[in-house]
């Protein structure tokens, strides 16, 4: 089968490599243009470009794939199928029509749950015990096509987005290859795959920097899930309101969930214990144990070093950005 690969981020890399080693002919890579890190000269990593370059594959990077120029380019390639994963652009109907079989998309959730840009993060944030990957036969509606293949996997109780996402990317490889085989033998007069149930749709919008600001009126479990979900970005932080000094921002680099609440002496949003190698922060119905922490302007440090050098006290307040 003649395939055009469309992908940008690391989630697409295992599938891309598998296609390059398969019986199929990968014609080229469509990917996002190289972009610089905000206020820096360095560029963001381009893992899909690196793989394409290593295999001598042609790379196309239009600002928009939905232009007449991109359409003409795809029509000239005459692909059988577009394989899309972690691309960053939504394909219009006439772009999908440039391939005989349209397109398939590998998505990091059990659709129709968590349609959108951050499905892995939202599954962890909501405390789901299970997630997976879905390959859909694409329609112009975002993540709305029929499901060709679903693979499920449990989410570990301490697993972070950084750990879960590569697992899901690897799970997607066989799902994509099997979906391609399905389409090769599919009767075009019938629907390929199972339609999604609109009543089960939920959204997974892109994360925002402001999401990292901890609300200590949340449950300890939700705060812990946010920490797991927001790795590596936007992370989690709070502000330590020091007596007689300006508040200092604290990034929570490594934490654990303590389900037992602090005594009534330490309401949510206070330090409930600061002693030796222990730093406990009180939330609504439990506590957060800090193992590594990063004060503003410093490198991450073990909690022992932080407690010894900064002398936080039980009862000190933790405040949000809005309270500064």
SSE blueprint:
Layout: E1 2-7, H1 13-20, E2 25-30, H2 47-54, E3 59-60, H3 68-77, E4 81-85, H4 93-96, E5 103-107, H5 119-125, E6 130-137, E7 147-154, H6 161-184, H7 220-229, E8 237-241, E9 248-258, E10 271-275, E11 278-282, E12 287-295, E13 301-302, H8 303-310, E14 317-319
Structural key phrases:
2 domains; Rossmann fold; elongated; Methionyl-tRNA Fmet Formyltransferase, Chain A, domain 2; 324 residues
Molecular structure report:
The protein has about 325 residues and is α/β, with parallel strands linked by helices. The chain folds into two domains: about 1-200, Formyl transferase, N-terminal domain (Rossmann fold, 3-Layer(aba) Sandwich), CATH 3.40.50; about 210-324, Methionyl-tRNA Fmet Formyltransferase, Chain A, domain 2, CATH 3.10.25. It has eight helices and 14 strands. It has helices at about 15-20, 45-55, 70-75, 95, 120-125, 160-185, 220-230, 305-310, and strands at about 1-5, 25-30, 60, 80-85, 105, 130-135, 145-155, 235-240, 250-260, 270-275, 280, 285-295, 300, 315-320. The protein has a seven-stranded mixed sheet. Strands 8, 9, 10, 11, 12, 13 and 14 form a seven-stranded antiparallel sheet that branches. The longest helix has 24 residues, at about 160-185. The radius of gyration is 23 Å and the shape is elongated. About 35% of the residues are buried. The mean pLDDT is about 95.
Note the beta-strand portion. 15-25%
CATH architecture of the largest domain: 3-Layer(aba) Sandwich
Query: Would you identify the regions where 5 or more consecutive residues have pLDDT less than 50?
Result: none
CATH topology of the largest domain: Rossmann fold
Class of secondary structure makeup: alpha/beta
Largest sheet: 7 strands, mixed
Count of DSSP strands: 14
Q: Strand arrangement, largest sheet? A: 3-2-1-4-5-6-7
How far apart the termini lie comes to: 59 Å
CATH class of the largest domain: Alpha Beta
- The whole-angstrom Rg is 23 Å
């Amino acid at each position: 089968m003649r395939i055009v690969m469309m992908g940008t981020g690391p989630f697409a890399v295992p599938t891309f490599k598998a296609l390059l080693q398969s019986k199929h002919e990968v014609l080229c890579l469509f990917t996002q243009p190289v972009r610089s890190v905000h206020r820096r000269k360095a560029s963001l990593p381009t893992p899909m470009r690196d793989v394409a370059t290593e295999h001598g594959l042609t790379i196309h990077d239009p600002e928009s794939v939905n232009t007449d120029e991109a359409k003409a380019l795809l029509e000239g390639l005459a692909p059988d199928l577009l394989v899309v994963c972690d691309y960053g652009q939504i394909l219009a109907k006439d772009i999908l029509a440039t391939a005989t079989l349209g397109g398939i998309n590998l998505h990091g959730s059990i659709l129709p749950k968590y349609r959108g840009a951050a499905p892995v993060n939202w599954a962890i944030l909501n405390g789901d015990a299970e997630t997976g990957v879905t390959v859909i036969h694409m329609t112009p509606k975002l993540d709305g096509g029929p499901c060709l293949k679903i693979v499920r996997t449990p989410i570990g109780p301490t697993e972070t987005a950084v750990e879960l996402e590569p697992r899901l990317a690897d799970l997607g490889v066989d799902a994509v290859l099997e979906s391609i085989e399905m389409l090769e033998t599919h009767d075009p007069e019938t629907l390929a795959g199972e339609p999604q149930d609109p009543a089960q749709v939920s959204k997974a919008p892109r994360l925002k920097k402001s999401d990292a600001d901890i609300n200590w009126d949340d449950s300890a479990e939700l705060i812990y899930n946010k920490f797991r979900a927001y790795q590596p970005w936007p992370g989690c932080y709070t502000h330590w309101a020091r007596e007689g000094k300006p508040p200092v921002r604290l990034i929570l680099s490594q934490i654990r969930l303590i389900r037992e609440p602090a005594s009534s002496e330490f309401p949510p949003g206070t330090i409930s214990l600061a002693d030796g190698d222990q730093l406990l922060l009180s939330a609504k119905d439990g506590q957060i144990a800090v193992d590594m922490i990063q004060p503003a302007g410093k490198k991450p440090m073990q909690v022992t070093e932080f407690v010894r050098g900064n002398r936080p006290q039980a009862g000190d307040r933790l405040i949000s950005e809005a309270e500064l």
